[in-house]
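note to self: the first set is below, dont mix up w the second
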Amino acid sequence: MTEPTERSIGRYDVRPARRDDIEGARSVMLDTFYRVFEHGYVPRWHADVIDLGRAYFDHPRQRLFVAALDDEIVGTAAVRADGPQSPPHAPWIAQRYPSGTTAQIFRVYVRPEHRRNGLARALVELACRFVAGTPGYQTIYLHTNAAVDGAEPFWRSVAEEIHDGRTDPRYSPAVHFEIPIPTPGESPNHWPST
């Protein structure tokens, strides 16, 4: 397994998280749940956020990434070895993306005042590089809430839509995407260079 390295984007550092980043990363995530999503912390959806150490440092196939400005964590992204669950998603989605071989991109959040600096793209690129260097993954999957301002256009710029859940009221209205696993050490092949 090869660990992606730190990179600078203007005044920001984008890198794999360290244990001393946990509180700052949790703050970004919780603020997103309460201020952006407006539904707050939901234990069945957000259990990883309470124990980020266990979720992303103690599991060798999972990782947390951060964007930092000086000592402040301003953005996050994570990789988990879990596929989507049914419910809330359609059964065929869960079957297509099984846990273990699916790398799911999670928690891609950037504080509003730090958006439009390329941080989300850089965080996702690091996450994809981690997946490329980690044995056993066959697919990179994610889903997003299209009601969140900017989320759907961002994911359409880096991923391929698999299913728009808004077309089936029986399940979650999430939009589901897939990203090709890049060659180790290279950017995802369809992204503009950063």
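second set (the one i keep forgetting abt)
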Amino acid sequence: MIDYATWCAIRDGTAQHLSPEQISSALGLNVKTVRRWLDRPYAQRQTARRGSKLDPFKGRIVRWLEAHPLSAQQVFQRLMDEGYPGGISIVKDFVRFIRPRPREAFLTLAFAPGEAAQADWGEFGTIAVGNTRRRLSFFVMVLAWSRQMYVEFTLSQTMEQFLAAHVNAFHALGVPKKVMVDNLRCAVVAHPRGGPAEIHPRYLDFARHYGFEIVACAVAKGNEKGRVERGVGYVKGNFLSGLELPNFAALNPALRVWLESVANVRLHRETHRRPLDLWQEERAHLQAVNPRLFDIARVLALRANRQFRVSFESNRYSVPARFAGRPVTVKVYPDRLCLYDGETLIARHARSFERHRDIEDPDHAKALVAQRRHARDAHVLKRFLALSPLAEKYHLGLVERRGNALAHVRQIVALAEIHGDEPIVRALADALAFEAFSSEYIAHLVAARNRRLPEANPLSLMRHQDVLDIELPPADLSAYAKVTGDENGTL
């Protein structure tokens, strides 16, 4: 149970739009305690109060503290001289209650147009990605003067994601003179309390390339970048709250619509203007984006295993078979992996955020398959079984009814290379329905579907008898009767 003064301090911090972490740091409390009392009314249990040995001395303690800033130990020593029979613990509690900790005051920071932007990461639970779940992160950048906001969802908070989000934000907003960040792992290597921050050298190179200065906030002083702190909370409370998270691929397009239709066109409670309107005025003070690209990749030195695979983030990516067991250099981008032998690019793969996947380029195994017949047969069978879940059942039928099932498998795989997988999968389904197990039958089905039927010829009447057999309706002569004036049609 916290005392009433501490509860008031927590409520004041909430009114100043401070985060629970900032309030806990300022008051010296555990962040869980602050979160528990954020929206909770203060109500002590009403129980029968037992008298305290300190009660007769409380008035004197108040007078002493009003006159001098005595410590609890000094108060206790004076009480002992006055004949106080109790211990020091209740004295400390009473002194703490009537003399609450002083609350830190914060100045309102002012910025000129184009002077600064503030950047930070936010998190919001997890999201399904294929066969696994990943932590959902989002990058927020807010221009300090106009409050124009850029937000981007990611599946990690690594350096390449951090730099790529900066580039996207600069293209959307413009480049400010400085970017204010918290002591993020991607931005700050070390920041001793009261001393200068040591900026991450990769981030420092990036800042020099795009022409902005990095400003690291003081330790435990998140209020110095309060605009982006409130921006993170605004994304959680307005866009994400109550949202049934869709597929990750649909999340960023929906976010862009929200930024254009809600976030950047709302009436801001501090400026009383729309961020979009202020940004139109601020654009002239922002720098243009450097047209030369900065290589944002994270570089790793890894070794390919005997199956010519490189492991990264619990997934395995193939390299050409000749590099099995050899060290390779991996450049990790937000959307792809590029693998090098020295300065030579040997493989490129789309980056997977699933887990325990084997990502293979079929060309990487061709040289090895050509050398080993058994490996080639196993590779062909693997390719056949990957066509469809029905392929395994069809293979069992080939083994039971054909003398050389592997020869039929080779023929079917060759058909897949010629016609594509979809026609072969459809033919396998039809062949299973008729229990027809052979590569010739699959080839026949594929050819039949590809065959174009001739168009129907127009009706041709060549015989005289055919013309005589045509039945025609009797002619209507009423139009002629009107012209001749013979209404009865006697003419």
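remember for set 2: The chain has a mean pLDDT of 85.
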